[in-house]
Amino acid sequence: MRTVKKQPQPRRWHILVFILPAFLIYTVFAIYPIVESLRLSLYQSIPSAQGTGTTAEFAGLANYMRLWGEPYWAEQFWNALKNNFLLFAMHMLIQNPIALALAALVSIPTLKGAATYRTIFFLPTLLSVVIVGFIWQLILSPLWGITPDFMKWLGIREWFKPWLGLESTALVTVTLISIWQYVGIPLMLFYAGLLNIPEETIEAARIDGLNGWWIFWKVKLPLILPALGVVAILTYIGNFTASFDIIYTLQGGLAGPDYSTDVMGTFLFRTFFGFQSQLGDTYMGATVASVLFFIILVGVAIYLFGVQRRLQRYDF
Amino acid sequence: MASLTRKLERGRAGLSSLGIHAILIAYSVLALFPLYLILLNSFKSRRGIFGDPAGLPNESTFSTKGYQSVITNSDFPLYFGNSLVVTGVALFFILLFGAMAAHALSEYDFPGSTFIGLYLILGIMVPIRLGTVALLKLIVDLNLANTLTALILVYTAQGLPVAIFIFSEFLKNVSHEIKDSARIDGLSEYRIFFEVVIPLVRPVIATVAVFSMIPIWNDLWFPLILSPGESTRTVTLGVQKFVGQYTVDWGAVLAALSVAVVPVLFMYIIFSKQLIRGITAGAVKG
Questions:
Q1: Is 60 exceeded by the pLDDT of residue A315?
Q2: % of chain A at pLDDT higher than 70
Q3: Would residue A27 count as lying in a domain?
Q4: pLDDT digits (tens, 9 = 90+) for A182-217
Q5: How confident is the model at residue A260 (pLDDT cuts 50, 70, 90)?
């Protein structure tokens, strides 16, 4: 294949050819649906004049008023939102410190078997939530789980509770299972951040007489703050969307017991699709998705303009 | 000299290396024990699973029936094939189109390039699931409901932002000299991409592949909504429906779960070294 160039091409078609496939698929199947969902949230379905079927009619912010005004919707909405923020807080306070501690240990240059540990810690992240859900039921079930027997063996059988089935403990239990599964992701990000720290920086601190513990607090931690920022925003976003999977698998679409593990994802699913006695509603579904969109947008804005900018000075 | 500093470090650190290993091994057990349980129970009969979930299979409970029924008389091979097709094709498009777009954005100056670059990575921050309501409508209008094509298109759209971001970060640091000398040799821009750029980005392909593959293979949301039909179920959805039934063949479920892990595990073990390198090069600096 020989190409003979007579002159520099005036129109650079190749740029278009390179960008267009990604641009089109992304615009049609990612951006358009999100924008269209925002638009649909301003419509309501009313019986059409002909008598059969329904038509969509512009309704302004009426759906939002219903979501926050009608007790049936408002109660579910605020409950799901509260649970989401609890989920986020627990991931930030439990998952990410564990990930940081493990990453700090695994990144010790003299540690033997670091690669093996890293692989093991990441394994649960690779599993589908269906597996994770089933296996933790096998462990925690009061009827056929292994925990009651194990606790009996330890002599503390009376402390056993059906943690996934109690309103007071279900959300925490689901969160801990989610942490068990996903700790690998922040761990990898922290680990990569720690590896990026130049050896000379640490050497200099050591010459100044700092020991391992203080090097971590005074030198390494400030330097991986950007990774901490990335982890925080990923945790925030994942918590609002991805948490659906584990809760739907473990607790079902009604996010039981008595909605105590309901999050925005399961709430959106029920609203849009309907569940058991509840009928699905496209426009209310779009409204819930749109509110979620704005909640995520606020988080992203805080990250981009508040957190990330302030972290910039630590760049090296 | 090196061993001296090492000794000093060990001596001054708060934890001895024995203590460190104790912590890491303890966490390893926590991470592995549930996996061990799945594998263990997949080789047991129903009575063995529920009678003594933690026990090793013995003569009375050992059974490979689960694996047999998964292979012979369930829809599992179909689901498995569906997942392979969806993940494989989507991954191919993500890698190819992602690398093409990232190459164009980092190689050429053209009006609006910054804007298009930002637009294309917006999807990292705004999850595509938020558009589900309109997406389902679109898929139905396109006559793609209950097809694997729908899933492939959606996953490609979902995976492109991260792919473009990681590829761009990587290509930014690649020198232009190789490409310029290829240009002097008279290679077309297309051949430069396929013969020069693709080999250059090979180290990060693994990172992008693993990061894109895991969420696609394990996704429950889009299969549940876009293609819940019997013939288009993915492994994740198929097993989820399976678990929900009353008369469940638990041995088969566990066997199915064990088999379903294999492709992701395989990818991860092959690529785990490059994965770290890729994250170091891209994601964290974002």
A1: no
A2: 92
A3: no
A4: 999 899 889 888 888 888 888 888 888 888 788 888
A5: confident
Asked if A207 reaches chain B (Cβ–Cβ under 8 Å), the answer is no
pLDDT > 90: what percent of chain A?
34
> Which positions in chain B touch A249 (Cβ < 8 Å)?
220, 240
SS3 B44: strand
Residue A168's CB is within 10 A of a number of other CB atoms, namely 10
What pLDDT, on the 0 to 100 scale, is given for residue B8? 47
Chain A hits for B49, CB-CB cut-off 8 Å, are 144
Residues 6+ apart with CB under 8 A from A73: A66, A67, A284
Which DSSP state fits B62?
B
Nearest to B97 among A25, A33, A146 (CB): A25
Average pLDDT of chain B is 82
A167 occurs within a structural domain: yes
Residues on chain B touching A36 (C-beta within 8 angstroms): 131, 134, 137-138
Q: How many domains does chain A have?
A: 1
- Domain boundaries, position A133: 68-314
Using CB atoms and an 8 Å cut-off, which of residues 41-100 of chain A contact chain B? none
Instruction: Please state the domain extents for chain B.
Output: 13-63, 73-285
The alpha carbon of residue B119 is apart from the nearest alpha carbon of chain A, in Å, by: 9
Query: Which residues from A are below 8 Å from B93, CB to CB?
Result: 21, 25
What is residue B125's three-state secondary structure? coil
The whole-angstrom distance between B278's CA and the closest CA on chain A is 9
Residues contacting residue A107 through CB under 8 Å, at least 6 positions apart:
A114, A191, A194, A195
Residue B84 has pLDDT above 80, yes or no: yes
- Give the residue on B whose Cα is nearest the Cα of A214: B13
Residue A122 lies in a domain: yes
CATH code: domain of residue A168: 1.10.3720.10
Average confidence (pLDDT) over B14-24? 82
pLDDT of A6 strictly over 60: no
Tokens of B163: 């792919």
The answer to whether B157 faces chain A, any CB pair under 8 Å, is yes
Tokens 């925005």 belong to residue: A264
Q: Is residue A126 part of a domain?
A: yes
CA nearest A284 in B: which residue? Answer: B133
Over residues B215-235, the pLDDT tens digits come to 898 888 899 899 888 888 998
Residue B4 in this model has a pLDDT that exceeds 70: no
| CATH architecture group of domain B73-285 | Orthogonal Bundle (1.10)
Tell whether A150 lies on the interface with B, counting CB pairs under 8 A. yes
Give this complex's ipTM.
Answer: 0.85
* Chain B residues within an 8 Å CB radius of A214: none
**Average pLDDT for residues B72-89, to the nearest whole number?**
87
